[in-house]
Amino acid sequence: MSGWIKLHRKLLDWEWYSKPVVKSVFIHGLLRANHKDGKWQGKDIKRGSFISSVDKLSSELGHSRQEIRTALKHLKSTNELTTLGCSQHTVFIVVNYENYQEATSQLTNEQQTVNHQSTTNKNVKNDNNDNKVVKDKATECNIDWQDLKDYFNKTMPNKNVSVINDKRKKHIRALLKSTGKDIDTLKAHIDNAAESTSGFWKEWREGNVDQNGKHWQPQGFDFYMRESTFIKSLED
After folding, report:
1. In a domain, 181, yes or no
2. For the domain that residue 113 is a member of, what is the CATH number?
3. What phi and psi values does residue 19 have, to the nearest 5 degrees?
4. Residue range of the domain that includes 120
5. pLDDT grade, residue 119 (50/70/90)?
6. Cβ–Cβ < 8 Å for 145, 225
7. Best exposed site among 37, 101, 108, 189 by fewest CB in 10 Å?
8. Secondary structure of 22-39 as H, E, C letters
9. Overall domain count for the chain
């Protein structure tokens, strides 16, 4: 690693500046992002992008996986970062990288305003394009099924998945395509289902006995991969 990045003092006025984890993830992204186009294991990694994962960011920054995912959720909501990925490795994209790391030595306030407005307009279009790319790539990329199976088994109590067959693979690809999400988001859903103290998540996770004495078995892998369950998790 060599070289440097630029941080403008306007960062002090940034809406996430007072959130330590969000700020940490964003600045780390600027430091990790490629300063020129490159390749990694046959993938094109463009300027302003870098390869990582939630687990790796957690290790590098010393924050929990849930804290990293929450920070990424915030950064995506304000179009600071976006992601493309379908395995344990994800391409993280700093959306405004050109604006943040412009080659000129100094910008006037007027230039900054014009650039910000121009970038904002472009980002609305780019965000729509990025979402489309995520949906398109979700069914094309090489999902690490063993990694997903292992992650579910080590995270979810009571129920294990022994095999992810072709039918399940087809369903999961369709789920990612229809929702425009990636494997990291699916893992976050598994975390939520395993850790949430909400009543219905707890019942789905642990089972229950109703007032008639009927026992509800803990829900298995296929239940958590349902689109309706996934969306409930995304929307808390």
Report:
1. yes
2. 1.10.10.10
3. -100, 100
4. 9-138
5. very low
6. no
7. 108
8. HHHHHHHHHHHCCCCCEE
9. 2
User: Is residue 2 in a domain?
Assistant: no
Mean pLDDT of the chain: 77
Q: Which of 32-46, 100-114, 174-188, 219-233 has the lowest mean pLDDT?
A: 100-114
Token readout for 63 is 């924050």
Which residue, chain included where needed, has tokens 């780390």? 28
Q: Which of 28-32, 99-103, 161-165 has the lowest mean pLDDT?
A: 99-103
The length of the chain is: 236
Let me know whether 66 and 126 are in one domain: yes
Residues 173 and 189 in one domain: yes
From 187, 204, 183, select the one nearest 137 (Cα to Cα): 183
Look at residue 128 and tell me if it is in a domain: yes
Q: In the chain, how long is the greatest CA-to-CA distance?
A: 74
